[in-house]
């Protein structure tokens, strides 16, 4: 069975996550930019406005962002709660994608366009986000605390 997609109805929303704010761009295949890159803060109000804007786009919309420690969680959770398809991707996959140029442009706008191109190239393989259970979050927190404790204990023995 062959699955056909209407290429003009594919909206790749790319979000370059930073601490407290993010850069968003919406692209379609062949480099067509639907929404120019813009910044959004991670406030409830701004994320609600972003979700409403993304829901108003015609066609299938997929949101992709890099997993950046814990900075992406407010954005991911807000957009998932709004019923949107969100796919956080490991940053190494995006970093190594499309490095076929000698120019080293490193800006939030350039990064968001690179992430959107990754989304369009991997459209069918994007995995939807599923929120972590509370127990998993708690265990991850305990693990981080344990690692910090071990480092401090090791440092105190060397002094």
Low-confidence stretches: none
Give the strand order, joined by hyphens, for the main sheet.
3-2-1-4-5
How much strand content do the residues show? 25-35%
Q: What is the strand tally?
A: 5
What summary fits the major beta sheet?
Answer: 5 strands, mixed
Assign the structural class, choosing from mainly alpha, mainly beta, alpha/beta, alpha+beta, or little secondary structure: alpha/beta
| CA-based gyration radius | 18 Å
From the spread of the alpha carbons, the general shape counts as globular
Distance between the termini: 67 Å
Mean pLDDT across the residues is 84
* Number of DSSP helical runs: 5
Helix content: 40-55%
Order of helices and strands: EEEHEHEHHH
Question: What does this protein structure show overall?
Answer:
- The chain has 159 residues and is an alpha/beta fold.
- 41% of the residues lie in helices and 25% in strands.
- The chain has helices at 44-55, 73-81, 91-95, 108-121, 134-158; strands at 10-17, 21-28, 32-41, 60-67, 85-90.
- Strands 3-2-1-4-5 form a five-stranded mixed sheet, with helices on both faces.
- Strand 2 (21-28) and strand 3 form a beta hairpin.
- The chain is globular, with a radius of gyration of 18 Å.
- The mean pLDDT is 84.
